[in-house]
Amino acid sequence: METKKEFFLECYQLGIIKFGRFTLKSGIESPFYVDLRPLASDPKILKKLANYMLDMLPLDNFDLICGVPYAALPMATAMSLESYLPLIIKRKEAKQYGTKKILEGIYTSGQNCLLVEDVVTSGASLLETIPEIENEGITVSDIVVVLDRQQGGKEILEQKGFRVHTLFTISEVCAMLKEEGHLADDEVERINDFLAGNVVKFKEEKRISYEDKLALCEHSVAQKLLEIALEKRSNLIVSADVTSTPELLALAEKVGPHIVALKTHMDILMDFDADKTILPLKDLATKYNFLLMEDRKFADIGNTQELQFSYGIYKISNWADFVTAQVIAGYESLDCFRNVGVVAIIGMSSKGTLTTADYREEATNIALSHPNVFGGVSQYKIPNELLLFTPGINLAETGDGKGQQYNTPEHAFSQLESDFIIVGRGIYKADDAEKAALNYRIAGWNAYEASL
Ligand code: BMP
């Protein structure tokens, strides 16, 4: 049997609630926006919705059913079909000609009509509709609502003597969405603030500059990266996902002047050799002033990571300036990266990633508190004390058909307040990698400046 929560999550998939910053008809700013009309476009969901609503009601009390136009019309129709309660239709405005009727359908005076509404906010539209129905000699005792926005409407209607049955309340819905990782703590807080009648504070402040970050970030690698960024007027990291040393070195030579760091996956090289790969790469890093970021994404217990970091054929600790690591194994697993900086994987760019809001929150707490960590990889904002690295950047594509999801540099800097963009295929697959690196460098720097 499907639970009410499972049913709600199915409805949520249709985009019926959005979170962010919305100006309501009244001019008030709301942290969420509800529109239940999409429910009518999914017949299975509409039918289930009708039954969930009917299950809450003393059906013997009613002779008729009527939806408040327009959003509740399909809901009332579906409920009528499921319960055999006869439907009447209320016009939004009385007909200008002919009968000038406000109610359409078959009814007689003295009958009791169940009213259906999609969302109740202040109750104003119901209070307008009810007298129009009662003027026709029909009584209204019960109102059934899909979602109560909890802004006083239900209480006002109840004070006037109506029984109000609600399937979901906004707080219940937020709790379910939080549990499922769709809502972060600060969003829930903002919603609670709004429901408590307070003026909601939306963050207005602009992102902070690299100069200010330099004062804030204590880790030596973070400072070095920020210094290079300011010197080269670049926030570009190229992801060198090539599979041979000649390709790697050729790419580093081309993009070197434009980047703050070269990101490697050393384990994809077919011909890795410490002398032939690392020594010339280090020379290029010195020549063009960029750092080496090994995207190893360590994800094991501390002891194993320590071995993976310093032993085997790659001996990452000998040459990488900083590495990426998952925080899945907990705080202490990061202790082994003593002589380098760590960028923690907080959220991933791929479709269906398990890095939910709750996970990201916990991962951020570890990243903030661990002295080896100076940054995070994420597709969401992270605290200013950490540098944000954003992969999944491409000026031409929106995805790669393998789960990768791309955004633009503008999105990274203005929406996420990112510090560094990471570009792979957008550059190394380009016909002219140097020109592509220059384009991304300019796009990244312009987007950064525009976001200040
Ligand atoms: P591309 O721009 O070609 O999609 O490459 C992105 C690079 O960033 C890859 O090396 C990938 O491993 C890495 N990356 C990512 O795409 N998303 C993440 O969430 C984390 C990553 O490190």
How would you describe this protein?
- This protein is an alpha/beta fold.
- The chain is built from 16 helices and 16 strands.
- The strands form three sheets. Strands 9-10-11-12-13-14-15-16 form an eight-stranded parallel barrel, surrounded by six helices.
- It is elongated, with a radius of gyration of 29 Å.
- 6-hydroxyuridine-5'-phosphate binds at residues 239, 241, 265, 295, 348-349, 377, 391-392, 394, 404, 422-426.
Keywords:
452 residues, alpha/beta, eight-stranded parallel beta barrel, six-stranded mixed sheet, 16 helices, elongated, binds 6-hydroxyuridine-5'-phosphate
Topology:
Elements: H1 4-12, E1 17-23, E2 29-34, H2 43-55, E3 64-67, H3 73-83, E4 87-90, E5 103-104, E6 113-120, H4 124-134, E7 142-148, H5 153-159, E8 163-169, H6 170-179, H7 185-195, H8 210-216, H9 220-232, E9 236-240, H10 245-255, E10 261-264, H11 274-288, E11 291-298, H12 302-310, E12 322-326, E13 341-345, H13 357-369, E14 373-377, E15 387-390, H14 409-415, E16 420-423, H15 425-428, H16 433-451
Parallel strand pairs: 3-4, 3-6, 6-7, 7-8, 9-10, 9-16, 10-11, 11-12, 12-13, 13-14, 14-15, 15-16
Antiparallel strand pairs: 1-2, 4-5
Helix pairs in contact: 1-2, 2-3, 6-7, 8-9, 10-11, 14-16
6-hydroxyuridine-5'-phosphate is lined by residues 239, 241, 265, 295, 348-349, 377, 391-392, 394, 404, 422-426.
> Would you tell me the structural class of the helices and strands?
alpha/beta
Average the pLDDT over all residues and give the rounded result. Answer: 94
From the alpha carbons, calculate the radius of gyration and give it in angstroms: 29 Å
Physical arrangement of strands within the biggest beta sheet? 9-10-11-12-13-14-15-16
Strand proportion, as a percent range, falls in 15-25%
Q: Ions, cofactors, ligands: which are bound?
A: 6-hydroxyuridine-5'-phosphate
Helicity range of the residues? 25-40%
Straight-line distance between termini: 52 Å
User: Uncertain spans, ≥5 residues at pLDDT below 50?
Assistant: none
Shape: elongated
| DSSP summary: helix tally | 16
